[in-house]
């Protein structure tokens, strides 16, 4: 699964044939079809596996801990993540292809994404802010991957990091004010 996922994230899922995806996993095409009914079922499995891994990584962060959130966002919005889609998050690599997938695949994506957002919401302390941060980070990585120069990529990533930090800091200040009000 991981090998097929890496190939799909690096070269695109639609552009990777069953033979290449099976070969990346050390399987023949015939063995592939013993595990999956078709390429669409593999995409659903990749989505589920990848978003579960992302959810697990974020679940280790203490809720509403600014420094841990900053570290996670800095790692996500890094030049290394931009340069190596095969080892990074499935969202910037395959979201546009998922948008063209069958309804069953989109349903798997939606469920897995909502599970991830539940974890992020707990960590950030606000569901809408968690969704906005996710959108901002994924979008920044997608845009940076489309740029030709490292300096332009860094500019996109730095702007997104700065904005994300400001959002997290603002949420933290609002939570502190609320806690002070609640104690009175």
Automatic annotation (TrEMBL):
Domain of life: Bacteria
Residue ranges of every copy of the HTH tetR-type domain listed in the record: 1-54
Key words, A-Z: DNA-binding, Transcription, Transcription regulation
Transmembrane segments: none
Record field: compositional bias (Basic and acidic residues): 174-184
DNA-binding region: 17-36
Span list, region Disordered: 163-184
Name used for this protein in its record: Helix-turn-helix domain containing protein
Species of provenance: Archangium lansingense
